[in-house]
Specification:
Helices cover 78% and strands 0% of the residues. The protein has 176 residues and is mainly α.
Length: 176
C-alpha cells in the first residue's frame, strides 16, 4: 500500500483536505517540499486534461507564474553572496502588479464564487503581505531574507495553482 502521505495520495484528496494535510506537516522544509511534490503530480494531471490547454489556467501555470519562478530563482542560487538589488526591484515590481490584481480583483471574486475556499484564499492574501514584509531586509542586502522570499514565493505559487487551476479549468474561476 502507498504511503498515506505520499504526494500521489495527497494529490488525490479533495483540495481542502489536501491543504489541511499540508498545514499539519510541522516541519516547514518538509511541508514546502511536499507541497512542491504534490504540485508536480497535479501539474502532470492538468497537462493531460484538454480543458487545461483551452483555459486561462495554462496561461497562469505555463506563462505567468514561470516568469516569477525563473526570475526570483535566478536571484537566489545557493552560492549567491549578495543581493542584486536592481534585478530584485525589477522582478518585484512585476510581482507587485500581479499580486495587486489578485488582491483587488481576482481573489475577491474567487471568494464570492467559491465561499468554501475563503479561508484558503485569505492565506494566499496573507502570503502576499509576508513577501512584502521581507522586502525591506532584501533592500538592505540581506541574502537570507532573499532566500526566504524566494522559498515563500515558490510555495505560494504552488498552493495558488492547486487552488485556482481546477476552477479555471471548469470555468468557475472568475476569469473566463
Amino acid at each position: 500500500m502507498a504511503d498515506p502521505e505520499s504526494p500521489d495520495q495527497l494529490a488525490s484528496l479533495p483540495i481542502l483536505n489536501r491543504l489541511a494535510a499540508l498545514r499539519n506537516i510541522e516541519d516547514r522544509t518538509k511541508r514546502i517540499a511536499t507541497t512542491a511534490a504534490i504540485h508536480a503530480v497535479l501539474r502532470a494531471q492538468w497537462f493531460l486534461d484538454p480543458r487545461f490547454h483551452t483555459s486561462i489556467a495554462s496561461h497562469l501555470v505555463d506563462e505567468v507564474h514561470p516568469l516569477f519562478r525563473h526570475a526570483f530563482a535566478a536571484l537566489a542560487p545557493a552560492e549567491v553572496a549578495r543581493v542584486d538589488l536592481r534585478a530584485f526591484a525589477l522582478a518585484n515590481q512585476s510581482l507587485h502588479q500581479h499580486h495587486g490584481l489578485e488582491d483587488r480583483l481576482w481573489f475577491p471574486r474567487l471568494k464570492k464564487l467559491h465561499p468554501e475556499m475563503r479561508a484558503e484564499i485569505e492565506i494566499l492574501e496573507a502570503d502576499h503581505g509576508a513577501l512584502v514584509a521581507l522586502e525591506a531586509r532584501i533592500r538592505r542586502g540581506d541574502v537570507k531574507a532573499l532566500r526566504e522570499f524566494v522559498e515563500n514565493l515558490m510555495d505560494h505559487l504552488n498552493r495558488e495553482e492547486m487552488i485556482s487551476v481546477p476552477f479555471l479549468m471548469d470555468g468557475t474561476g472568475g476569469l473566463g
